[in-house]
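WARN no homologs supplied; continuing
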Amino acid sequence: PLLSRINPMFHTVNGAVDGFLSAEVDLTWNGSVDKVADWKGSSRQFLRGGVLFSARNLKISASPALSAILAVLGEERGAIEGEIPETRLTCADGRIYCKDLVVRMKSYDLRFTGWVDFESNMELMVEMPVSESLSRKYRLERRIGNTFFVPLKGKVSSPQLDMTKAVEELLKRSAAGVIEELLERQRKKKGK
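OK structure emitted
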């Protein structure tokens, strides 16, 4: 449960998180601890600091967030293996904020930016590769770049990828690439 407050990929359902995790924690509680009945609510006001986090030989299985992401990429595997390079996380306002938390796998990286709060709500942006199956599914043209961003919101236990926004971005980039290519052809014809 603690790791899922860092990122929803660590929340598993009948699965596991395995590997060597490292965390240097520097947190400060700036208030009274005598009468704290609701630590989650009080943490919004009193808990501040940071965590330097990394993972090696990371294996995660049966994570709803990762399953959703892998499905978008056209992958049917239910687990990942990889690493998380050293990343600075910030704690404030009852949330754990991350900027560029990278999950490095053999074939590609996933990059997370945003927050997860102590109530398991989240608002993240996931940068992921543009896979061949994704290009085929949405009939994307060339020149759209190698990665795209997908909003990931909701609860850690029931993550929601906003594919509508992501596909809109990809289609705009695809259209811009086609227009650019047509203009380039026109310029070449005029130059002859």
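The radius of gyration is 20 Å.
OK
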